[in-house]
Amino acid sequence: MNVLEQQLSIEALQRGDRAEFARMVDVFSGPLYRLALKMLGSPQDAEDVLQNTFIKALQNLKTFEGRSSLSTWLYRIAVNEALMLLRKQKPEVSLTDTLPEDSEDTDYSPVEFTDWCCLPEEEFLTTESRQALDASMRRLPETLRVVFLLRDIEGLSIQETSEALGLTETAVKTRLLRARLRLRELLSVYYGERLPERKG
Amino acid sequence: MSKHEHTRCKDLLGSLSDYVDGALSESLCQEIEAHVAECSNCRIVVDTLRKTVTLYHTTAGETAEVPAQVRERLFRTLNLEDYLKH
Q1: B61 occurs within a structural domain
Q2: Partner of A137 at 20 to 30 A CA spacing, among A62, A63, A68, B52?
Q3: pLDDT at residue A4, rounded to an integer
């Protein structure tokens, strides 16, 4: 929970205080828009998710019991909205079913052993490098991507991520590890090609 | 490239997230550090995994702005026009 979130009054929000609700929208719209954009890859879809998230929040604030933080509650609404949109586009998407990504049989053993950490820092700061980070993330299955986004981009704890997604902490940890390992493989290929000895 | 499948290395794989997050016990950290000192492939996996996570953490903070027009439409949708000005 950040400082701005701590300054919001749940009591005022539940009383229907419009100014407080506007403050809440400004505190959370940035992270929620980013989450939706990275989940869906389309600014229009992300905007739809952002609007629907706050509409649902407005409708349901009175039933918010404070068992999780306000941010976790909003992330949960936003993730559900984004997944609903994804399911319309790709009906096979599911978050809570047993997935191939959770199976012990799915092999996530590393196959790339290029040490690209020694690249100059400016290599990691280019527009192309940032595009490669986004493109790699988009190649993750939605079930891994959403866990990675909440934990590593939005900075939620394992417990908050499990609350936001309705998954056990063990499932969150497993999916986070697999997301990170898969991204490492993809980035190893991308940055490996930028190592001086492999150029030309 | 062939897969990296030594038994000890596979054991280590399951603890990697907790290790790079600093969430492992000191004794397990020491075990991992002793192993990667001997196993260059595991050292590379640990270093590049940590770098992967760091890169995403670093870029995350730069992209949390809502475009002004998106914010405006959001406030209008929520009937919050009166609060559009910061």
Answers
A1: yes
A2: A68
A3: 77
